[in-house]
Write a structure and sequence with these properties.
Length: 207
């Protein structure tokens, strides 16, 4: 399903989707504005009527990506039967992106497009934090998660750890896939927060 960013026209959204796919395949630094114009089938003049420079393009791609991620997340939340299902479905919803993401994208953002990277950090500390906290509270209400935990702290642990999972120095892409890293982490995370009732359900789902 394609989600359109409300701040752009339909044509501009298509350009951004194509550009994001280009970044995902080759990384950000190695892709030039000539490459982007060629991929979109437009002139550089037309491209520069839409964006000021490459950094502006990266930020617009990221804005569209974040809005799409929030829309996907909202759909998952509506369709999940329990808090455990919700967490597993969230990872599944993002699995394709993780599989196709070039390993140096995070490094490129951190080093060359710091403002864009800061937007990701703000997204994680606001929207993602809220989603995780609400999932923890839902799990407690359903009797699937432990009641003896600090929900705020666990949600922040999750956010902080998620950033570390993207570190190439810790998990080099030559040895690990990002999808498998997140899947293993999620299993570890869930086993740490489930109640006895939740443990039985989780074991059944993972068997």
């Amino acid at each position: 399903m394609v989600y359109l960013c409300t701040m752009f026209t339909e044509q501009q959204n298509k350009w951004l989707e194509q550009t994001e796919a280009l970044f995902m395949r080759y990384g950000i630094k190695s892709v030039t504005m000539d490459d982007v114009a060629r991929e979109l089938g437009i002139s550089k003049k037309t491209l520069y009527q839409f964006v000021e420079n490459k950094d502006d393009l990266v930020q617009k791609v990221l804005e569209q990506h974040i809005e799409g991620e929030q829309n996907r997340c909202t759909q998952v939340l509506k369709g999940s039967a329990s808090a455990i299902d919700e967490m597993m479905n969230l990872v599944e919803a993002n699995s394709e992106q993780l599989k196709h993401m070039k390993s140096n994208i995070i490094h490129d953002l951190q080093r060359y497009h710091r403002e864009a990277w800061d937007k990701i950090a703000r997204h994680q500390s606001s929207f993602t934090y809220t989603v995780i906290r609400q999932n923890l509270e839902r799990g407690q209400a359903e009797g699937l998660y432990r009641m003896d935990m600090d929900v705020d702290m666990i949600a922040k642990f999750h956010i902080a750890t998620s950033f570390q999972l993207l570190e190439e120095s810790l998990f080099p892409s030559s040895h690990y896939t990002k999808f498998n890293i997140f899947k293993e982490y999620l299993t570890h995370y869930l086993y740490g927060i489930v109640s006895e009732k939740g443990y039985a359900i989780l074991r059944e789902k993972l068997s």
